[in-house]
Design a protein that fits this description.
Elements (H helix, E strand, L loop, with lengths): L1 E3 L2 E3 L1 H4 L3 E5 L7 E5 L3 E3 L6 E3 L4 E5 L2 E5 L3 E4 L2 E4 L13 E8 L3 E8 L3 E4 L3 E4 L4 E6 L2 E5 L3 E4 L2 E4 L7
């Protein structure tokens, strides 16, 4: 609380998300402590909210994340790489559960070098492919190979023996 015109007012009524402040009157109030999920700006007159799924932060970004998320470059990213999905292919990197008559786990995307086959399997691309949509549809070739109609062909100019 701070004094304003002979009355006590809450810190957050003048500085949003401020829970402890000092001063006497709106023009001289400074925040000393911000609420959880925000941090105190160096001016002491502003509490800045943390980003999505972030429990604590500072001026550099997120320090701790909500359950299921992990800090990465100042933000919180989804931490589950499908490891919690029962029986999911280890090369699956994006999963979901859909409710049909029963709950069913589905793989949505595979890591680079693999393609999605069916609802839960990630199969390896041909060795000449860096990325593919199926075994016969490469989208990016390994170095020294050239993409020709979905197939990575040996690039004779780069493969001298």
């Amino acid at each position: 609380m701070y004094e304003s015109g002979g009355f006590c007012s809450s810190c957050s009524s003048f500085i949003a998300f401020c829970i402890d402040c000092s001063g006497s009157g709106p023009s001289s109030v400074i925040c000393q402590v911000c609420s959880a999920g925000s941090y105190l700006h160096t001016s002491n007159t502003l509490c800045i909210l943390c980003g999505a799924n972030c429990d604590s932060c500072d001026n550099t970004g997120c320090l701790t994340c909500s359950a299921g998320f992990t800090p990465s470059a100042g933000n919180c990213i989804y931490a589950d790489t499908c490891g919690s999905f029962t029986g999911m292919d280890v090369n699956c990197v994006d999963c979901t559960t859909v409710l049909t008559p029963v709950a069913e786990d589905l793989c949505l995307a595979c890591q680079e070098g693999y393609y999605l086959f069916g609802d839960a399997d990630c199969l390896a691309c041909p060795s000449s492919c860096q990325q593919c949509q199926s075994y016969f549809n490469c989208t990016l070739c390994q170095p020294t190979f050239t993409l020709e109609v979905g197939i990575c062909q040996c690039d004779t100019l780069n493969n001298e023996v």
